[in-house]
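lol forgot to send this yesterday, sorry. struct tokens for the thing we talked abt
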């Protein structure tokens, strides 16, 4: 089924209760912490959590909340920013592969290897032939992580609408506690909303590993959806604490 971002609701369903969802999320977060401990001790599988979305969609807040009860020893966050000169001198996946999770670990990508298609495509720094080749390389890279290292890849597109993003960006100007996040360049990217949505749709529909599109206009529901998915994944892996070695 083809994904059309404009047809997807970025808000929680009307039937859910904010109070109930927050309570469920708190329980899930605790359970994730316990399961993560077993995952780390067993060192059989790893999990890669990819958080993508427009500026102010809540990537930091999602990671902080969902893994708030997990051990820092086994959960790591890496934020992909503009490549350094050293990184530019290599293929675009060189810096990404170095951050792939080892067995037993949960690695969170705040932004990811998809940035090398998204922003570069929107600004026309790469042509469509290179876009196609990079998408193929990403699909192969993710398949390698799954096949060769037992890595489960969870990809979340945090879906907020343009008006909500505008409100969140304005908060970074008006709220002194958030002013450190303000970047004037974010407003320039905000004006390219339609181009970004076109590129995101293409990525969502051409990825070999399906994406989870998460309604992100309300942080309490966004966190719940991601937490539930991570919890379900850990339950399916069923990590076990090792006993005494013989």
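and heres what i got for the seq, position by position
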């Amino acid at each position: 089924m083809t994904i059309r971002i404009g047809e997807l609701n970025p808000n929680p369903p009307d039937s859910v209760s904010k109070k109930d969802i927050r309570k469920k999320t708190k329980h899930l977060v605790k359970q994730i912490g316990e399961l993560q401990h077993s995952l780390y001790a067993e060192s059989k599988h790893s999990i890669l959590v990819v958080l993508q979305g427009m500026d102010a969609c809540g990537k930091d807040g999602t990671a902080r909340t969902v893994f708030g009860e997990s051990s820092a020893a086994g959960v790591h966050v890496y934020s992909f920013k503009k490549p350094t000169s050293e990184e530019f001198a290599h293929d675009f996946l060189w810096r990404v592969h170095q951050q792939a999770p080892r067995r037993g670990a949960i690695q969170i990508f705040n932004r990811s290897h998809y940035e090398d298609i998204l922003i570069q495509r929107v600004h026309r720094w790469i042509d469509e032939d290179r876009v196609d080749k990079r998408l193929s390389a990403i699909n192969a890279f993710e398949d390698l992580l799954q096949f060769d290292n037992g890595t489960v890849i969870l990809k979340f597109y945090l879906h907020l609408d343009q008006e909500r993003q505008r409100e969140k960006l304005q908060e970074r100007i008006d709220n002194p506690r958030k002013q450190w996040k303000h970047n004037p360049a974010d407003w320039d990217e905000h004006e390219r909303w339609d181009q970004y949505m076109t590129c995101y749709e293409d990525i969502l529909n051409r990825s070999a590993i399906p994406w989870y599109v998460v309604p992100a206009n309300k942080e309490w529901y966004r966190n719940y959806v991601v937490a539930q998915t991570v919890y379900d994944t850990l339950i399916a892996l069923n990590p076990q604490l090792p006993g005494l070695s013989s």
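DSSP finds ten helices and five strands in the chain. anyway ping me if u want another try
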